[in-house]
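Subject line: Sequence and fold of a protein, written as structure tokens
Enclosed: The protein record, placed directly beneath this head.
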Amino acid sequence: MEAARGIARNRFAQVELGIDPDAEEAGRRAEQAADALTFEKAVEQYLAAQEARLAARTLRQNTFIAEERYLRRHCGPLQKKPVAKVAFEDVAKLIRDLIRDHGPTSAARARGAISTFYGWCMRQGIGVKANPTIGTDNPVYGKPARDRVLNDDEIRIIWRNCLDDDFGKIVRLLLLTACRRDEIGGLRWEELDVGQGKLLLPRERTKAKRPHELPLSATALEIVRSIRRRNSRATLFGGGANGFNAWSYNTLALNARITATEGRALVPFRLHDLRRTVRTRMGKLGVLPHVAELVLNHAGHKSGIGGVYDHHDYGPEIAEALQKWEAHLLAIVQ
């Protein structure tokens, strides 16, 4: 009874001081609920929403895979923090650590994924009032445009320093096919017709959102045939359901191996530079521009009115272009 009287006196005193006890209690409960929603739990909600977009085909599969990788793996130090209490300082430190461990490009992509995620949180009204990436440095801001094309010596050095592992085979296939990194890294057995020597990428796995049929050269087929199918795994490379994703670590390891074996470091390059290099070299080899663009699955002359009138698939011309490039590449590396 005395305890009840004490509670009543306390509430009366609060009212006298202009304090609303009910509002104060509601605020306390709201704060507890906000603390219970960690970065990790909020990311799960976000990825579930992104999966719905993936099913509706309003989001590319590779975009989803990248967001999942950056938010779950690269943001390890943030996982257990309340999502509403992740501060600018937390994100700034994370970016510095990612630059050190994975390089500026991966750090910039992780920063972008965090920013997009917090924008979603704010729109959902789940207690997040600000985006903690605002004001943090973009690690690639102000860097020159991506126009790197490798010379013969660089191509030769990269090729011979590839190991006989998943990453090494991916890099060589990138040089042979001019495909995008994630197209080869996420390659599935069902996307290969080894008998016909073809790569068959569905629209869901290409940036252009167009199916991409590509004839494989003899060297590319040899690499594919060397890959052992692991149990019932659908992908050729990597240990996860979505294929290979250890890009930063293996690129750094490749660069370190080149420095050790060659006695010098290469000018920094990205895997996407291989694609640009193939396209440039095809032009020098006399491959017609519209054919070279189709090798890369660019719309080229078929965008707009050209696509209305030209229904030729250019399969023979694409095959000839890749054979010409294969011969040139092997002359360089051998």
Observations:
- The first helix runs from residue 2 to 16.
- The chain has a mean pLDDT of 87.
